[in-house]
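WARN no homologs supplied; continuing
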Amino acid sequence: MNFVFCNMPRTYSNSEYADMVFVYGFCNGNALKAVREYARRFPNRRVPNRRVFMLTFNRLRETGTFSIRQENNRFQAALRRDLQAGNRILQHFDNHPETSVRNASAVLGVSPQTIWRTVKGDNRYPYHIQKVQNLLPQDHWNRLNFCNWNYHIWAHQNPRSVREYKFQQEFSVNVWLGIWNDVLVGPFFLPARLNGDRFLNFLENEFSDYLENIPLQQRTEMWFQLDGCPAHYSRVARTWLDRKFPQRWIGRGGAVHWATRSPDLTPLDFYAWGTLKQEVYSSPIQSEQHLRNRIVAAANRISQEQCLAATRAVFDRCNACIAARGAHFEQNLH
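OK structure emitted
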């Protein structure tokens, strides 16, 4: 049979503690002498060891009491205060998840260090809020229709168009850009004042020349996507699209209606334009020609692998949009 022995703390009466302190002082703080002196004076008492003399004297000096229980009570009270403060901090962040540590410190009257320690101990992290395109209630249904259609038809042989952007106040350019499979199409510079006839001229000349380099079989299967720009919706542009891409173009009046306010569903908006703008505006632009040169150089740095990854990402984004029932979904992408 095995026995486990453990040392239990031995307590004394206040009278005994007082005698210990007196004897300890009488011996000028020499604990070994105090043990012998205490045994000589009080032969009928149990004799504490030298460590008890030292602890008793130090406890009396630091806390003003002999009681170990009272000291433990103070420690427990401190723990309870810390627990209550921690609960208040976590409750505050539950109710105000977008607050800052500084504001929480001011409201709760707790130091920022304590707040940081508490939220980190609860495995909470300060995630940044992602800005997304504003959606109107009617947009959800349009986005769902587009993604449900796109879910089973979207192919890599699908070029993309862009909306007009004016990047500078002093000088601006209209740029047309597309993505077909793993190829960045363009950039093409359009007239500053774009209307239906001028856009048709671009389609019949510059863009048609590009199409001639694509095998006929792929051209008969590719889809053409446009946004809601007025020039894209002009009668002459739609007539050209119906002739070149019968029932295979996306946009206003097309076989598939493009969901407005949905830059998160086209690789030009969620990837290409953002990458281009970051490169183009990395340093100040000095002139319109400088702007054009910067756009061309930035476009040339976009690789085929990047274009292919962007087009393939559309499938995952459509699935995420469907799961969100047409609402915002980019915050859930990994």
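The chain has three domains: 14-66, 69-121, 139-332.
OK
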